[in-house]
Specification:
The protein is mainly alpha-helical. α2 packs across α3.
Length: 140
C-alpha cells in the first residue's frame, strides 16, 4: 500500500485528506529486499514519494538525495512532502515556545498512567475483538 495510486486518488482526492502519510517501518525497503518490485532502495523510495508517502518510518528515504540527483524525483514532490510534514508539526505546536504549547505541561506520569496504558491496550485489541465477534457470528 505504500506505493498505491489509491493514496492520491482515494485518500487525498476522494476523502480530501490533507495530512501527511507515513509508511510502515521497512515497507519501502521490503519492496526491494523481499518483494523484489524494485532493484534499488533509491527506486523504491522515489516511487513511494511519487505515490504520496511523505515520511518513511524506516531508512529508505535516506536514499532520496541519490534519487534526486538521478532526476527520479522532483522539487515539487519534495516540497509537497515537506510542506505536509511542517504543517503537522506547526499544528502540534512543535515550533511554539513551551509555555504556549498545551502539551508541554503533560507529565510523563500522566502519559504513562495505568489509565492510559489500559486505554492503549483497548485500542490495540478493539479491531481484533470486532474480527473475533464477526467470526463467531458467522460460525454460529
Amino acid at each position: 500500500m505504500c506505493m498505491s495510486p489509491m493514496l492520491q486518488s482515494v485518500l487525498r482526492e476522494r476523502f480530501n485528506f490533507t495530512g501527511f502519510i507515513c509508511s510502515d517501518s521497512g515497507a519501502i525497503s521490503f519492496m526491494v529486499s523481499y518483494f523484489k518490485r524494485f532493484n534499488t532502495t533509491e527506486d523504491a523510495a522515489a516511487a513511494a514519494l511519487a505515490a504520496g508517502v511523505d515520511l518513511n518510518s524506516g531508512s529508505a528515504y535516506l536514499s532520496l538525495p541519490k534519487a534526486y540527483a538521478a532526476k527520479k524525483i522532483t522539487d515539487s514532490q519534495i516540497n509537497q512532502a515537506a510542506q505536509r510534514l511542517m504543517v503537522a508539526r506547526m499544528r502540534l505546536g512543535m515550533f511554539d515556545p513551551p509555555e504556549m504549547n498545551p502539551f508541554h505541561n503533560i507529565s510523563q506520569d500522566e502519559i504513562h498512567s495505568a489509565k492510559h496504558r489500559a486505554m492503549a491496550l483497548e485500542v490495540l485489541w478493539a479491531p481484533h475483538a470486532l474480527s473475533f465477534s464477526m467470526l463467531f457470528a458467522r460460525e454460529g
